[in-house]
Every structure is written in structure tokens, then in C-alpha cells.
Write a structure and sequence with these properties.
CATH class of the largest domain: Alpha Beta
CATH topology of the largest domain: Quinone Oxidoreductase, Chain A, domain 1
Largest sheet: 7 strands, mixed
Shape: globular
CATH architecture of the largest domain: Alpha-Beta Complex
Order of helices and strands: EEEHHEEEEEEHHEHEHEHEHEHEHEHE
Helix content: 25-40%
Strand content: 25-35%
Structural class: alpha/beta
Number of domains: 2
Radius of gyration: 20 Å
């Protein structure tokens, strides 16, 4: 590590629009505390949590989805004292960015110096001991603490996962949030070989990760995405792709599946929710990790009751998930979908492109 004390970083100064992202070249380099490591960031990927946190979309008063307009300007009705995923207040200034790939530059007390120089990715869930699903002790990297949209960042040593592969830092930065979220999303349904799964929002980071993880489980996959992205998703492993603008979506799903489906995975919400539930077989399973098209839906409970459905949310990722994903990465069983690269000063432009949803896979900021 060099002897410099200041670094480049993008600072989130408060909830609101893109103007709340401030590029700085004079931000102090953090010092690793006991049990922590200092990472020199090579790249940091974008995800929906960055937009949701900046705009305080998580607060209950916001009922609309994230669009290029709302995501750029923010929400006037947002409750700033409940702006995090756990409905608590965010401390500003904050460095966002959960999807870090880089190298360990220094270590804090209690961490062996042999770790210096290791190539790592960050497991963004800093879970507490005991009940790991207790939200009061589940810290998310880049939300309740500073993340990776900077030259250097610190994190608990156990959350800096060594990775040995030939992928670039930008490619590695497509994995942490999207693939861990997708793995949790799939696991919550107990997807089994030969079952049919429909994936909404299939072209995004979580969606493309879910396609690969469902393929590894031997499932038949129906993807919902823009028509223009069909060929890419088929090459990735989707057996069928349905245009997201299809009016009679539930019927289109059944036609593609040859009947009702076993599992539905959703990061979209909004109008698609009803179609996914209607397409499920008796005893089918639905799992959601996002609602970018709208968090508030009308729901007929008879669909749940008399079809014996299982509906689950998927947010806090179980411990050990990220380490299993690193193993799959090192074995070459997961493919990074790097849609675009931006430089750190252009983070606002990267977020705008992310919200346009014209890409397939993940957008990454290289540092």
C-alpha cells in the first residue's frame, strides 16, 4: 500500500436524486480496525439496493416502483428516517457499493499479515452471531456501513473471501450481491431437478444469476424479459423466453411450460405478481427478492389458501452462501455477465444506465 492518506470516492450526502452523489478526491482512507482488512478496490458493481437506499424507496410511504425518472429524482413522499432496507435511518455521508472485488492492502489487529496481497471479493452481509436472521444485527455493506465506491474500503476479515481465478476485477464485481441474492431466492423455494421455474426480471443481475443457478439444479427455465434480450438468455440457459410486455402473461407462461409451473422467482413485483401466482400449480412456490415495478399489489387470499401455495421473501442471505458461490466461480460453473463499465467519477451516469434497464447482466464501476 502507498503512503497516501486521501483517496477518491463517491459520497452519498443524503436521500434524494442523483445530485446526492458527490465525487471527491480528498476523502480519508479508512484504517482497518481489529478483525478487519483494508481492500484496495479494483471494481464495484451496481445493484438495486444502491438506488433504493439513495431514494429512500424502502420507506413505507413510497408505493411506486423505480423508474428512470423516479430513480433519478427521488421520491417526495419518502420517509428519510426509514430509508434503509430494514426501515431504519441511514447515517450520512455514506459510501455505497456492496459488490467489491480487489486486493487486501493492510490488516487490522488480530488478522494475519499473510492476507496482504490476497485477491478477494466481499460477502456484503455482515451478520451477527446467534440468530443470523435478526435484522438488528444484520449489517449490509454499503448501506449500514461504508462500501466500495472508493479506492479503498474496510470490511470484517471473514467477509473478505479469497478467490483464485482468471476473471478480471470488473467480472468478479458482478457476483457478490446478485448471485448471493439469487441463490437465496432459489433456495427458499427448494427447487428440485426436473421442476419448471419461471423467472421475472430475468435479464438483470439477479435474474441472469438465477438462470444459471436453476440450470445447475437441473430445472426447466422460463424467463420473462424484453424480446430483444431473448437470444442472450437462451444461450445462458433459459428454455423459453416470454416478452415482458405480453398482456396475458399467466397464459403465456402456461403455454411455454406445457401446464402450470412449480416455482416462480420474482424481482419485479407490480402487475407481474398476479400472473406469476396464477401460473403456479397446486402447492407451487413463489419467492421474491425485489419489487422494482411496484411494491404494493392487490392479492386475493383464495389464491394462497385453496392452491396450497408457499410465498416467501428472500432478503437476508444465510451464512456460508457467498463461500459456496466462490467455489462455483473458481470451478468455472458460473458465468459473469458484465454489461458495461464506468469510471468512479461517472457513478451517477452508471446509475442512470442501470435504471434504464437496457442491459443484460451487471453494470460495474472500475476504480
Amino acid at each position: 500500500m502507498s503512503l497516501k492518506t486521501l483517496m477518491r470516492a463517491v459520497i452519498l450526502t443524503g436521500h434524494g436524486g442523483l445530485e446526492k452523489l458527490e465525487y471527491r478526491e480528498d476523502w480519508p482512507i479508512p484504517a482497518p480496525r481489529a478483525g478487519e482488512v483494508l481492500i484496495e478496490v479494483g471494481a464495484c458493481g451496481l445493484n438495486n439496493a444502491d438506488i433504493n437506499t439513495r431514494t429512500a424507496w424502502y420507506s413505507k410511504r413510497v408505493t411506486d416502483g423505480i423508474t428512470p425518472t423516479t430513480g433519478s429524482a427521488g421520491f417526495a413522499e419518502a420517509q428519510f428516517d426509514a430509508g434503509s432496507w430494514g426501515s431504519s435511518a441511514i447515517s450520512f455521508p455514506l459510501i455505497q457499493g456492496s459488490d467489491v472485488a480487489g486486493r487486501i492492502a493492510a490488516v487490522g489487529d488480530g488478522v494475519g499479515s499473510t492476507r496482504i496481497g490476497e485477491r478477494v471479493i466481499v460477502d456484503p452481509w455482515l451478520l451477527g452471531s446467534g440468530d443470523w436472521m435478526n435484522p438488528s444485527s444484520a449489517v449490509y455493506f454499503g448501506s449500514e456501513c461504508n462500501g466500495g465506491f472508493s479506492e479503498f474500503t474496510t470490511v470484517r476479515s471473514e467477509n473478505a473471501l479469497r478467490v483464485d481465478c482468471d476473471l478480471s476485477d470488473a467480472q468478479l464485481a458482478t457476483f457478490p450481491c446478485a448471485y448471493a441474492t439469487a441463490e437465496n431466492l432459489v433456495a427458499r423455494t427448494g427447487l428440485r431437478p426436473a421442476e419448471t421455474v419461471v423467472i421475472a426480471g430475468a435479464s438483470g443481475g439477479v435474474g441472469t444469476a438465477a438462470i444459471q443457478l436453476c440450470r445447475l439444479r437441473g430445472a426447466r427455465i422460463i424467463a420473462i424479459a424484453s424480446r430483444s434480450k431473448s437470444s442472450v438468455l437462451r444461450k445462458l440457459g433459459a428454455d423459453a423466453v416470454i416478452d415482458r410486455e405480453t398482456a396475458e402473461m399467466s397464459e403465456a407462461i402456461r403455454t411455454a411450460a406445457g401446464g402450470d409451473v412449480d416455482v416462480a422467482l420474482d424481482v419485479v413485483g407490480g402487475r407481474i405478481f398476479h400472473h406469476l401466482v396464477r401460473a403456479l400449480r397446486q402447492g407451487g412456490r413463489y419467492s421474491s427478492s425485489g419489487a422494482i415495478s411496484g411494491p404494493v399489489v392487490d392479492f386475493d387470499l383464495r389464491q394462497l389458501i385453496y392452491k396450497d401455495l408457499q410465498l416467501t421473501g428472500a432478503t437476508i442471505v444465510p451464512p456460508g452462501t457467498a463461500r459456496r458461490l466462490v467455489d462455483l466461480i473458481e470451478r468455472g460453473l458460473l458465468r459473469p455477465l458484465l454489461a458495461a463499465e464506468y469510471t468512479l467519477p461517472d457513478l451517477a451516469k452508471a446509475q442512470q444506465a442501470f435504471m434504464e434497464k437496457l442491459h443484460v447482466g451487471n453494470i460495474v464501476v472500475t476504480v
